[in-house]
Design goal:
Structural class of chain A: alpha/beta
Oligomer: homodimer
Strand order of the largest sheet of chain A: 1-7-6-5-2-3-4
Order of helices and strands of chain A: HHHHHHHEHEHEHEHEHEHE
Distance between the termini of chain A: 17 Å
Strand content of chain A: 5-15%
Radius of gyration of chain A: 18 Å
Largest sheet of chain A: 7 strands, mixed
Chain lengths: ~290, ~290
């Protein structure tokens, strides 16, 4: 996705959010905000990918803060809150005629947990309060039947994870993907370095993803979504061989929508108008959208 | 009020809003956004008044746009919408035991009409839909009794107007201020030049404020709120002689809260957390707060 005008204040809002997570020092806060504005004045270009610009703005914020992971506490808390909801997720799947579809919905509900942006949540505990509402909302856009056709005949599937918290529900999703087609080789991809509230190898190790996927790869570097120019060779090969790519969340859409990789199924909550408009979807819905 | 971190994305959001009002040319839009970010990176300073920085950012936006009044259509429409509600305002005042108090409430309700910010309205017509709700909300903070004591013994009162639309209800307020104390000399102050959605002499001429006030003055220049360094001599003298200053809206609070002028009654809707926190008031209430 190309950066939209409205992405600029949204990105600054997120930078201010991470500044508040990281420090109480007023001079540092001021320096981060001034540097982020300066970088935006240099990089802003409606022909550039939003994720590429966001990566550089977060990079300078982290550098000035001297903090490699301002979201660490929120990420841990998000995982704990999501884990407390796993029994309910399992109950829903057990009762369902369509375990894969239910696991997809729950994993998208996990994607509502996102911090420092308008359509996101202000605290991980919000997920507890809103989980049942989101379940009854269901999917506002649903390409699952077409995704299942592709999944049924796929040999290799790659799932790009997004935030902490939702990564807990992604483990259930991975299990159901393999239950649906036990012959599939399933690769999970997380971020190569800590960036915003996204899951990394630390999370997949702790959550024992080795139980449900065939391999865990990383994007190899510090990037919002995926930096295709700095993608490791193993990930490049895996993407080339994939029969189906599944992307969780908005940042992966921002990155992949600028590439020719296909088929891709995006599983996400439309939390901002920029993404919703770009995907031609309503705002604030749970969506499965396939691009073949 | 000193600028807060959160003012930075809010200000950019408003600049983008005015860009959208003014042009469809992508190159111009890009140039405005880049220039606004650059200026913010230079000017941002938590020890500076928010209105002073906002003035400079809007100034550069207007310059790059080559547009002296991007809000002109919205301002005209706001006045028309507010005028369509005047019969209802008069009805409420007629029925009321406290005509001044009712006119104060209605004039604050007019202050909900504000564009390009989160707590504001997206279209002037929203006021029609929400007017009765705001009336039943009433005042969430009410220093009116103390204001009345000062008004009762005042010889000279100055009212600083804010947005178009609400200026229509301000005329009713001015009439009721004079009804409450017919001996008062009432000066109305509007912006010296068109800036954001604020009222100017053009509006007070069209609305015949000469019927209800003793004089109409202006802030003399292009400024969010009041630029005290460039204030005309007549306004300076009027402020020095005033027994009571009444300020409508947030921008006037941002400016006057950095001065020693007193007593001041602020009549506003708390539309953002920065102002609400600074005034120690809840967010999204109608408020009359007196600083003696």
């Amino acid at each position: 996705m190309k950066i939209q005008n409205e992405c600029v204040p949204c990105l600054l809002k997120r930078v201010i959010f991470e500044v508040e997570q990281s420090t109480k020092d007023k001079k540092t806060k001021k320096k981060v905000i001034k540097n982020a504005c300066k970088l935006l004045s240099e990089l802003y270009d409606p022909d550039e990918c939003s994720a590429v610009i966001a990566t550089e703005v977060h990079r300078i914020a982290y550098e000035v803060l001297g903090d490699k992971d301002p979201y660490r506490h929120l990420k841990d808390l998000s995982n704990r809150v999501a884990q407390s909801l796993v029994p309910r997720v399992e109950e829903l799947i057990k009762k369902s005629d369509d375990p894969l579809g239910t696991s997809i919905l729950c994993s998208i509900i996990g994607n509502t947990m996102d911090f420092g942006i308008e359509g996101g949540s202000s605290h991980p505990d919000m997920l507890k309060d809103l989980f049942e509402k989101y379940v009854s909302d269901g999917l506002g856009y649903d390409d699952t039947p077409r995704v299942k056709v592709l999944l049924g005949k796929a040999k290799r599937v790659v799932l790009f994870a997004d935030n902490c918290g939702e990564i807990v529900f992604d483990k259930v999703l991975c299990r159901e993907l393999k239950n649906f087609n036990p012959n599939v080789f399933l690769s999970l991809v997380v971020r190569g370095e800590s960036i915003i509230s996204d899951a990394t190898m630390k999370d997949t190790d702790e959550l024992r993803f080795d139980e449900v996927v065939d391999e865990v790869l990383t994007t190899g570097c510090f990037a919002v979504g995926v930096d295709f120019k700095r993608m490791p060779d193993d990930l490049k090969k895996t993407l080339e061989k994939a029969d189906l790519i599944i992307c969780k969340g908005m940042a992966n859409y921002e990155s992949f929508s600028e590439t020719r990789y296909h088929p891709i199924a995006y599983l996400l909550r439309t939390k901002c108008t920029a993404i919703a408009n770009s995907m031609e979807l309503p705002l604030n819905i749970n969506a499965v959208k396939l691009y073949q």
